[in-house]
Write a structure and sequence with these properties.
The complex is a heterodimer of chains A (about 425) and B (about 550). By secondary structure, chain A is an alpha/beta fold. Chain A has helices at about 25-30, 50-55, 100-105, 135-140, 180-190, 195-215, 225-245, 270-285, 315-320, 330-350, 360, 405-415, and strands at about 5-10, 15-20, 40-45, 55-60, 65, 80-90, 120, 125, 150-155, 165-170, 175, 290-295, 360-365, 385, 395-405. A seven-stranded mixed sheet of chain A has the order 9-12-3-13-14-6-15, with helices on both faces. A two-stranded antiparallel ribbon of chain A has the order 1-2. Classes of the chains: A alpha/beta (about 425), B mainly alpha (about 550).
Chain lengths: ~425, ~550
């Protein structure tokens, strides 16, 4: 398998030279001297958790806690985890939209929803979130210069509205997730390495000409159009750099996934795993450092046949805690924990330039839109942080008293070099969250 | 043409003269073609009945529009835009220009799509693309085919901007490759991927009128759902779209064309959210014969119903009352006694006596507007209130948990939902929503007719409790009495008209639109809900053809 790997170096006149893959030219060597990159992954699952079994058992101190069965798969990374209780997603408690809409929109933005026309399950209407999401702000702090600024991936996150998106470039600029692993592959590894040099030079001249055409259109009266054409031009420039700079080593051997019926609930597990594996490959090659993954829409009506859950999981989350069927939510949570474990295992396998693992340089934030489905409340959100990227003190189960989740987002931004004191709606900000660093 | 002597227009006339009816500005690099020299003509403003609309943002081609455009321009039906990022929906519609914008995935997908489209197109002998081996040939190709792609003549700068690309490509590769490169660049150009509907000629000092080519494009995407064809471009070149009367005449021709209902069919597929119908999930313990294939058949059946009622009746009344029903072998239990030759065949039949006609009685619609384990008076009621009355119910209070009443082996759906209306916080809205939905109660969660539920006879007494149009209000048994009221109501015509208008203009409605909409609704109502009339009225409205200097999104 290793013999098949090739590394491409940029030769004279941009021609790519294929070399046999050698241990000596592994990514860390090729990029020796550069600091290890920081990474961020946001993992979202819908409709809260099975609260009675979610939280770890407390010990004598924050660092002494026992994981329950839901999180058993995460046991190997216990020292890299930070379980939280007492953090409220207060920004989502009131405002435009219904509870899932407000929660999924506010999770990474800390912002309220605009008024709009997306009808919730109950007839409530809302628009998109009114600010950028954490991951998109982090792109500018940790993701600059990578080929793919960020990835938004989904497994059955198909709703083209506020319920099907967690990432926002800016207010009212949703970045809907890609649900088709085949296209995720094309985004990451789309360029066919054979004849790359010729293709790159042709693409460069095409993109130059297209940029020329954008410039001809830039004399616009409307400020909105000007802004959009500016962005279009920037994106074309970035794309040109990406398709012509063939210096990124082919550092992960990844096959294009076979076509998968990604809109079918029978494939949710298959799609989720493929998306995670493709993301990890992209991170191994340092093609991207920022990603969000949605494991279904906030207003899904999915059965999860791979877990033996034959009825709508969303409706199961609505049952009262004592109802036997509600325990199936714990089964779902256990599955999401296994996806989290897959991410951490993959990051462990990536050795960065300073010899450390990617887990120690990454921050993962696992969250959801409501704390529990049967009350649709936003208090005591079941957030879990993982990885050493933010230099938070991990290996703990920490408790706050009615803390604002916006403050947690502020702390994450601070950890990656931003000095902000508020993020999202300032009414739900008191300053960075205590007891993290 | 008379009375509008812009440089660009003069150039077009010259082009027509030289090329004997071919719709291009063939004069190469003449200064008259350049935008820079174009002085917008000052036309005397006529008093307008209503205030001008602010100017629209650039309209990014939707995936639907992109696919149709390359199909018509390049004969390529591969639908490459299926891989493009999905559009966010604005109350069901995918073409809201204020939301649709280019992101980093778009530019990559445009690049990939245009490369493969160009490769296939240049090799396609049926298209008879020139394989140029010298610059003058390429210049001609850029301006001629560029006009088809950009939906208007290229400016000199645009044309000049493309020519070096061909020459440079020809130096490195064969003529075929150079043509592919040139075409790929044209396909990624913003003039192709954006519909530019910012007017070009000043009317007095207050407004801008769209050029004939812009109107041809706007009409074509609205009515045909695709890029303007040669006939429309010719009408624009010849100045036929420079007057309101000319636009009305052209729109009239278009709605009577074989493609005349294509745009409206697209609108209705979004209005009904057919993609959602196809992805409907059911609890297989409650509905043991549900399958994904059945959900696909529901969608096809609905699509065929919509298309049939548009072609046969092209009216709102037809849509709400046509007895047509399309079934295949998977759609059993819908009262149609049909024998099929094979598994894929659909047959047209009519609804059995006593079943509701029109869109509200369609199996796919009813199954989609249901819960996964039963019917849903709420979803069905909200559809009528939101999509037909444009009076969506207000949101429930923030602190109310949304829990559908549990299934029961003895109670009817009505009885289960009656319980939640005993709670005063729920009652305020559900007293409005539920009665509408109860009129649908003869149809279960699969859209099948039922006389009883849990051994009890169905009570389908229902109807509209409150509406701006009081003629809509009243209870009756089942759907028929409500449908009769809907068909007659001005409010329903106004609601549908404003949604079709929103689809035509591709942006949220503004307060300035209200005044223009009045006449459009008047015409639609007077015509007995005729969709052809509605389309022509929207296209003929000055609000479709002109706008103020202010842009949408600008601070006042």
């Amino acid at each position: 398998m290793k013999a098949a790997r090739r590394i491409f170096l940029k030769g004279a006149f941009g021609t790519a030279i294929a070399l046999p893959w050698l241990e000596a030219l592994s990514p860390k060597q090729a990029r020796a001297g550069t600091p290890a990159p920081n990474r961020f992954i946001g993992l979202y699952h819908p409709n809260g958790v099975f609260t009675p079994k979610w939280f770890p058992t407390r010990g004598a101190s924050e660092t002494e806690f026992a994981l329950g069965p839901i999180h058993a798969a995460l046991e190997p990374w216990k020292q890299q985890l930070l379980f939280t209780s007492g953090i409220d997603m207060s920004v989502a408690i009131k405002g435009t939209g219904e509870m899932h809409q407000r929660g999924v929109g506010g999770w990474l933005t800390g912002a309220k929803l605009a008024s709009g026309t997306f009808v919730g399950n109950d007839g409530t209407m809302a628009g998109y979130a009114t600010g950028p999401s954490l991951d998109q702000v982090l792109v500018r702090l940790i993701g600059l210069g990578t080929a793919i600024p960020s990835l938004q991936l989904g497994a059955h996150a198909l709703m083209p509205n506020v319920s099907g998106v967690v990432s926002y470039a800016a207010a009212n600029q949703p970045l809907l997730p890609q649900n088709d692993p085949r296209l995720t592959f094309k985004t990451i590894f789309g360029t066919d390495p054979t004849g790359l040099g010729k293709l790159a030079s042709s693409r460069q001249s095409i993109l130059d000409a297209v940029q020329g055409q954008v410039k001809l259109m830039q004399k616009r009266t409307s400020a909105l159009d000007k802004q959009r054409l500016d962005r279009h031009l920037t994106l074309l420039r970035e794309l040109e750099t990406r398709v012509t700079n063939i210096t990124a080593p082919v550092c992960a051997k990844v096959e294009s996934p076979a076509p998968v019926d990604f809109a079918s609930e029978t494939q949710v597990d298959v799609v989720a795993k493929l998306q995670v594996d493709l993301l990890l490959a992209a991170m191994r090659c340092d093609l991207t450092r920022v990603a969000t993954i949605m494991l279904a829409d906030a207003q899904n009506h999915l059965a999860l046949p791979h877990l033996g859950i034959a009825t709508d999981i969303h409706n199961l989350t609505h049952l009262s805690d004592g109802t036997p069927d509600r325990e199936k939510v714990a089964t779902r949570d256990t599955w999401v924990a296994s996806i989290m474990a897959r991410l951490l295992e993959g990051l462990d396998g990536i050795i960065d330039s300073d010899g450390s693992t990617a887990t120690s340089n990454s921050l993962l934030l696992w969250g959801t839109d409501v704390s529990r489905g049967n009350t649709h409340s936003h208090d005591n959100m079941p957030f879990v942080l993982a990885g050493g990227g933010a230099k938070f003190r991990m290996g703990r189960y920490a408790t706050w008293q009615a803390a604002f989740h916006n403050d947690m987002l502020v702390s994450i931004l601070n950890a990656f070099g931003s000095p902000v004191q508020t993020f999202g709606d300032p009414a739900f900000c008191r300053g960075p969250l205590s007891n993290l660093v | 043409m008379e009375g509008s002597g812009s440089g660009r227009q003069a150039c077009q006339t010259k082009g027509v003269g030289l090329a004997a009816g071919v719709l291009i500005c063939v004069s190469l690099a003449t200064s008259a073609c350049s935008d820079k020299e174009t002085v917008p003509p000052i036309v005397i403003d006529e008093p307008q009945a209503c205030p001008d609309i602010p100017g629209p943002p650039l309209r990014l081609l939707t995936r639907f529009e992109y696919n149709n455009s390359v199909r018509d321009l390049l004969g390529d039906s591969s639908g490459p835009a299926r891989d493009f990022p999905r559009e966010p929906l604005a109350n069901g519609l995918d073409n809201d220009a204020t939301l649709n914008q280019v992101g980093d995935e778009n530019v990559l997908r445009y690049l990939e799509a245009s490369e493969s489209l160009a490769k296939v197109a240049v090799a396609n002998t049926a298209l008879a693309m020139p394989i140029c081996t010298a610059a003058p040939c390429a210049e001609k190709f850029i301006s001629e085919f560029g006009q088809r792609l950009f939906r208007r003549p290229l400016t000199t700068d645009e044309s000049l901007g493309m020519q070096p690309l061909f020459s440079a490509a020809l130096a490195k590769q064969d003529a075929q490759g150079a043509m592919e490169t040139t075409l790929a660049a044209l396909l990624q150009s913003p003039q192709f991927v954006y519909r530019d509907e910012w007017g070009t000629s000043a009317i007095g000092t207050s407004a801008l009128r769209l050029s004939g080519h812009q109107i041809a494009s706007k009409l074509s995407y609205f009515v045909f759902g695709t890029t303007p064809d040669a006939v429309l471009q010719q009408a624009a070149t010849q100045g036929e779209l420079n007057t309101a009367a000319g636009v009305a005449q052209t729109a009239n021709k278009m709605v009577n064309d074989a493609r005349g209902m294509d745009g409206l069919a697209r609108f209705l597929s979004q209005w009904l959210y057919l993609d959602g119908v196809q992805n409907t999930e059911k609890d297989i313990y409650t509905f043991t014969d549900f399958s994904r294939e059945l959900a696909k058949s529901w969608r096809t059946s609905l699509e065929m119903f919509v298309s049939n009622s548009l072609v046969e009746t092209h009216s709102l009344k037809g849509l709400l009352t046509s007895p047509a029903l399309f079934v295949d072998s998977k759609m059993t239990g819908y009262g149609a006694e049909v024998v099929f030759a094979n598994n894929t065949e659909f047959r047209q039949t009519v609804q059995a006596p006593g079943r509701a006609t029109g869109i509200l009685g369609q199996p796919g619609f009813l199954a989609f507007k249901s819960l996964h384990n039963g019917s849903s008076p709420i979803r069905r009621g909200i559809f009528v209130l939101d999509k037909l009355l444009c009076e969506p119910p207000p949101p429930p209070p923030a602190d109310v948990p949304i829990v559908p009443p549990p299934l029961s082996k003895s109670l009817t759906t009505r009885e289960r939902f009656d319980n939640h209306r005993k709670d005063p916080t729920c009652a305020s809205c559900h007293n409005v929503i539920d009665p509408v939905g109860f009129a649908f109660e003869h149809y279960d969660g699969m859209g099948r007719w039922r006389a009883t539920e849990n051994g009890q006879p169905i009570n389908a007494q229902g109807g509209i409790v409150t509406a701006n149009d009081e003629s809509l209000i009243g209870m009756g048994d089942g759907l028929e009495p409500m449908i009769e009221k809907l068909v007659q109501s001005r409010q329903v015509h106004d609601c549908v008209a404003r949604e079709v208008y929103r689809y035509a203009v591709g942006r949220p409605l503004l307060h300035e639109d209200e005044c223009w909409l009045k006449e459009i609704t008047d015409n639609f109502m007077k015509s007995g809900g005729d969709f052809k009339t509605l389309i022509v009225s929207i296209a003929s409205s000055p609000s479709f053809q002109r706008h103020s200097f202010k842009a949408i999104g600008d601070q006042p």
